[in-house]
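Study this pair:
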Amino acid sequence: MSNNRQMKEAKVQEIKEKLEKAEGVILAKYQGLTVEEDTELRKKLREAGVEYKVYKNTLTSIAAKELGFEGIVEHLNGPISIAFGYEDPTAPARVLNDFSKAHKKLELRAGIVQGEIYDEEKIKQLASIPSKEVLLAKLLGSFKAPLSNLAYLLNAVKEKKESEQA
């Protein structure tokens, strides 16, 4: 077996592992971005805990087909980058969508979120979902408000009884 074939098989295996491990995967066309814009995008993705890679489309197609994600193969034409989100499935979509608003050259193509294939429109909807931390904070805030009101009410009842006894 040739060394070149072994390298390609290893790369396909690497892509498969990343696709399996990731909660959210977004494909984007990046052609036309300047080096500075690409560097800025990579920095934002890194800050959000998202891995950003460019692989050969043929190798990505092979890996996707082997995992049963044939639906993304049609989007693998031209220069395509892949953003892998391992913790927050919405993070890659959110960062890439926000960046594409200011940089029209970046186009969202498709994605895989928790095993389901998303088209461009679904990715944009996904991008509007707040991060897991924000959602948890809102949930805790909604729990806290009634508890605070209950504590305030109990304190008021206690103070009223104390003033009646005095």
User: Anything to note?
Assistant: The first helix runs from residue 3 to 21.
